[in-house]
């Protein structure tokens, strides 16, 4: 059973890549441990409400702009296979996305109930062994397994805590109890919020400050849909968010647990706190246990994620690629590669990388008229419509390369891939991204006493905090100049005097004498 590509995992990333390989007639197979596609979502989130938005009514007829508000659909040719047709809910039920993924998988080369137990590599490629002793051979392997294991922090006694992935979610079982939730992410607050009506006391603990997604713009931080618990704390309803580290967990002879807790903001000694139940909601990690020594990828970020090149390839295992939420190690807690609305574009970029490397198919490009006006108009047209640049802010950009008398436009290229020479040399190169300002995660957007750059202020655009286009000019691969387009309340960067004319002048100046 030899293939050009073996994809491990039929979740959203595996399906996205498989659909693109299927369209191109490539030789591939998908191996899925579960009995259907999207198995992860049959269990998670535990309380069954997705926090990926599903805005059905956008006010736009442009399919590309509509995808900006559709965080669950994959990039497919069939217009019927949009998740917005599966649920009208802004925060849908997880069962709906499972139905969607199963329909996407129909017609793709997915093999179910295949539990991969070992992956090895030699000079001829990869050998994948499944639970039945069957081997699958491939020139390249793409891991799209997600972060399938709970990350368990090294706390003495943590084995006594219940786990987010297995605990009984029936709130009535917590009635009248003191509960500690370890973890200040969405899973922790989702859990705490579900218990508010039953538990006597709930503490949510973690060593770092709570970060709110609406302020940091990282959607993995605490979402508003999960932050009702903060009201119960600040309005003195017997619940609390406690800042510090759990140093030890010990069972009490009479039942329940005693913990040693070190507060982050005080100089007091260890405190002892007591609880009836403890739940670890401490995040997830990539499972690298199936790799033997010949193919084991290097891991980073507390060994939770694979270490990747800008081409989504393992830094130490050639031919081993990654797709999906495990690619977030490239932009950890800074952009959207950990989520469907981000990594669907990463998977498409990986597909283009594979085409360029292994099928002699260069990155898709179109020729442009070689003039400052044509270049600036093309860039502005894309930043006003692109969903990819909108979602993968600062991570993926559009590229205009000028060599001699030719100009070409390449869409949706990872900016690090460009920097690493993935598109080859270029005498003049413009890279357009959408980005927040450098202080965006510290400025309170609701505090009207804080000075901020005015809407459509072209002169001070570089100081804008909110999302806006940034165009960088490289000469022979070296950054030579940067231009910020003025931010706009409704994200319409299309005003002649505010956006077009300044960008055209910037491009003209960069190309002067070329």
Measured by DSSP, the beta-strand proportion falls in: 25-35%
Calculate Rg over CA atoms. Answer: 25 Å
Relative helix content: 10-25%
SS summary, helix count: 11
Strand count, sense and closure of the main sheet?
A: 7 strands, mixed
**Shape field:** globular
Mean pLDDT: 95
Structural class: alpha/beta
End-to-end Cα distance, whole Å, is 54 Å
- Uncertain ranges: none
Number of strands: 24
Task: Furnish the topology, listing elements before pairings.
Blueprint: E1 2-8, H1 12-23, E2 28-31, H2 63-66, H3 94-105, E3 110-111, E4 116-122, E5 125-130, E6 135-143, E7 149-150, E8 162-163, E9 178-182, H4 186-195, E10 201-206, H5 213-216, H6 228-234, E11 240-251, E12 257-263, E13 271-275, E14 277-280, E15 284-285, E16 299-300, E17 305-306, E18 320-322, H7 340-358, E19 365-368, H8 372-383, H9 387-391, E20 396-403, E21 406-414, H10 415-419, E22 428-435, E23 468-475, E24 478-484, H11 496-511
Helix pairs in contact: 1-7, 8-11
In short:
With 514 residues, the chain is α/β, with parallel strands linked by helices. 21% of the residues lie in helices and 25% in strands.
Overview of this protein structure:
The protein is an alpha/beta fold and 514 residues long. Helix 8 crosses helix 11. The chain contains 11 helices and 24 strands. The longest helix is centred in the last third of the chain and has 19 residues.
């Amino acid at each position: 059973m030899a293939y050009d590509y073996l994809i491990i995992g039929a979740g959203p990333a595996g399906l996205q890549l498989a659909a693109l390989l299927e369209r191109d007639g490539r030789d591939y197979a998908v191996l899925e441990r579960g009995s259907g596609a999207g198995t992860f979502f049959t269990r998670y989130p535990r309380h069954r409400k997705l926090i990926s938005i599903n805005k059905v009514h956008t006010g736009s007829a442009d399919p590309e702009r509509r995808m900006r508000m559709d965080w669950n659909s994959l990039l497919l040719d069939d217009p019927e296979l949009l998740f917005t047709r599966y649920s009208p809910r802004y925060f849908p039920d997880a069962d709906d996305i499972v139905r969607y993924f199963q329909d996407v998988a129909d017609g793709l080369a997915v093999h179910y109930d295949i539990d991969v137990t070992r992956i090895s590599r030699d000079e001829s490629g990869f050998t994948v062994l499944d639970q039945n002793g069957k081997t699958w051979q491939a020139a390249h392997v793409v891991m799209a397994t997600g972060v399938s294991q709970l990350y368990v922090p090294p706390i003495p006694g943590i084995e006594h805590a219940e786990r987010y992935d297995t605990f009984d979610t029936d709130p009535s079982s917590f009635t009248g109890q003191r509960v500690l939730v370890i973890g200040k992410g969405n899973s922790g607050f989702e859990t705490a919020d579900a218990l508010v009506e039953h538990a006597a006391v709930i503490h949510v603990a973690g060593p770092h400050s709570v970060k709110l997604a609406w302020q940091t713009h990282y959607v993995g931080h605490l979402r508003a849909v999960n932050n009702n618990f903060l009201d119960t704390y600040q309005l003195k309803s017997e619940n609390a968010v406690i800042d510090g580290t759990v140093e030890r967990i010990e069972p009490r002879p009479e039942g329940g647990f005693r913990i040693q807790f070190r507060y982050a903001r005080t100089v007091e000694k260890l405190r002892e706190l007591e609880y009836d139940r403890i739940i670890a909601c401490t995040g997830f990690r990539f499972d690298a246990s199936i790799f033997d020594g010949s193919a084991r990828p290097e891991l980073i970020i507390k060994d939770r994620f694979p270490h990747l090149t800008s081409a989504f390839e393992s830094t130490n295992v050639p031919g081993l690629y990654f797709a999906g939420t495990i690619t977030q190690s490239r932009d950890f807690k800074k952009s959207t590669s950990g989520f469907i609305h981000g990594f669907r574009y990463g998977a498409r970029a990986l597909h283009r990388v594979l085409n360029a490397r292994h099928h002699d198919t260069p990155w898709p490009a179109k020729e442009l008229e070689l003039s400052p006006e044509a270049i600036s108009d093309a860039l502005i047209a894309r930043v006003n419509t692109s969903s990819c640049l909108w979602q993968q802010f600062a991570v993926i950009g559009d590229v205009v390369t000028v060599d001699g008398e030719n100009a070409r436009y390449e869409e949706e290229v990872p900016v690090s891939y460009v920097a690493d020479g993935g598109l080859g040399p270029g005498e003049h190169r413009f890279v357009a991204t959408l980005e927040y300002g450098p202080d965006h995660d510290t400025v309170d957007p609701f505090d009207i006493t804080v000075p901020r750059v005015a809407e459509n202020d072209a002169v001070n655009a570089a100081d804008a905090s909110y999302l806006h286009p940034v165009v960088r000019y490289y000469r022979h691969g070296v950054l030579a100049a940067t231009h910020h387009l003025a931010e706009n309340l409704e994200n319409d960067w299309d005003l002649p005097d505010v956006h077009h004319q300044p960008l055209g002048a910037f491009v003209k100046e960069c190309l002067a004498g070329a």
